[in-house]
Every structure is written in C-alpha cells, then in structure tokens.
C-alpha cells in the first residue's frame, strides 16, 4: 500500500496546480495496481483515499480554476464516491509541487526563477518520461531558438532538467510510401526531461532520440501545435513514434572494416558501398556516423595524392572491441558544440 500511496502522490504532483479529478486518479494507478496484485475495488479505493488525505500535503478542491478547499468535516473527506459525484479534484500543496520539480531549496536561493523558466520546468515535468522537444517549447513561448537556448541551459546548469539530443521527422502529408524518405521535414533539437525522470533513460553519448510525426501539418510555425492543449498545458501526442537510435553498432562496423584493411586505410566510397550507405538517406547517415568517429578521434579522413580519392584511416593500431569502443566514447568531448 505504501508504494501505491507514493505513486498516487506523484500522479497528483505531476498534474501541478490544476490537480487531478478524483475520477481520473484510479485509471492512472491501474498499472501499479496490476503490478502489486491489488484489485481496483471499493475496499482498496477507500483505504487509499484515507491514506492520501492523511498526508496533509494534498487538498481536496471543489470548483473550477484555483478552486476552493473543502471545509473540515465535509462528507467527501471520508467518501471518495461523494468526491467523484461533486467533480472534486486532488491538488498538491505548493511546497510539495516545488519538491516534485526539484526546487527543494528555492526559498534559500538568491534569485527566483523567471516566469518562463518556471513555466518551462512545469511543461517538462508534466511530460514525465515522454520528454518535451525544445523546439516545441520555443513555439509555445513564442521565443527564438537562440533565446530559448539560454532558458533551457540555465535550468540544466541548476540540474533541474536534462537535455538529450533529438531529431524530429515529420512526413509530408500525402507522400507516397516510396517517396516518404525524400518527403520529410527534419528538425534537430533536444528533448527535455525533469531530472527525476531522466535517471531511467540510461542513454550513452552515441545514442539519439528520434521522433517521427505522422505527417507534416504545414510549413509555417503551426506544425507542432497539436502537442499542446487549448489551456496551454503540455500534452503528449500519442500518435508520435518515439525511438532511440544507437550509433555505436554503425561506428563499430566502420572500425572493423578499417581493422581488416591493409594499412588500416580504405577509400571512403568503397566503405559506403560495402556497408550499404546508398541514396540520399544513406549519405546523411554516413555523415552522422563519420562526424562522431572523427570527434571521438577514432578515424581521420584525407585526400589520397596519387589517385585523387578520399581515404579514411584508423587512428588506433590495436583491434577495437565493443567494450573499448564504449569506453573511448564515454569520455566527454568538448571539441564540438551542440
């Protein structure tokens, strides 16, 4: 039951100032209930209801907007069904909401977060493990990318959020399947996560998040507005296909080719043919992998003087195992700016 109470409190905090309607709390806990083997019946609901309100950091609120906390002795305090009938909401106190955002010691800080910083932090928190693309927050707050970069960077420097490299691919509406790869609008950005949720990502420096949207809604600034509800709160678009792309296998394949070559050098065009880097998509993928290999000081590229060919040479004389390659790539590299 303690685990269930903890998850319920997290669910209430994640809804921030508006809180969560009582009727929506039970479906949100279904996954945890299934994992603990507890049936979602009246007895479990009554026990959980009593435990939540006993915490004294969760208020039962009636009405729209900020709402009005119910008075002591209200029947809804002991009867969750009464609270559901009256459309009540559970709202976490301001202090516990700040703790959820990671603002544990803000009252002792010399300066307060700006309105945009606080709103950004709340949007990121509401997305939880889904994250929020930085480009979409730029549109939400009507800020230029360079200006919003400093907002995100300031929150990251305070260890309130974590940024992960991300690309967003939006398929052009009406594109045929065979033309889909040539009809994509690609945005390079970052996904922002609240620090408490970023701990479960376990991503390496050679992994990148890729988000594929179902279609390109238009070429103007309204392309991503479907990610936000009318009330301005962030809402995850469930139609998006989110995956994590790992560059390590592709990097290892190129290194293996160089290890097998005489003099640890090969013509770039030959490597691309052997490893099937073809067409426009393949050339883009090659550039991404090649830049990562060069930045990691694993390979060098040069022009051959005798036959006017571009050559790739390995910088390491010993064979590169997966473990050693992962170790090299785990060392922070500051030579290239994001």
TrEMBL record:
UniProt keywords, alphabetically: DNA-binding, Nucleus, Phosphoprotein, Transcription
Domain DUF7599: start-end pairs: 245-311
Residues of the B-block binding subunit of TFIIIC domain: 115-200
UniProt name for this protein: B-block binding subunit of TFIIIC
Gene Ontology cellular-component annotations: nucleus; transcription factor TFIIIC complex
Compartments where located: Nucleus
Example of a GO biological process term: transcription initiation at RNA polymerase III promoter
Domain General transcription factor 3C polypeptide 1 winged-helix positions: 1-104
Classification via Pfam families: B-block_TFIIIC (PF04182), DUF7599 (PF24538), WHD_GTF3C1_N (PF23704)
Lineage, top ranks: Eukaryota, Viridiplantae, Streptophyta, Embryophyta, Tracheophyta
Transmembrane segments: none
GO terms for MF: DNA binding
Organism: Zea mays
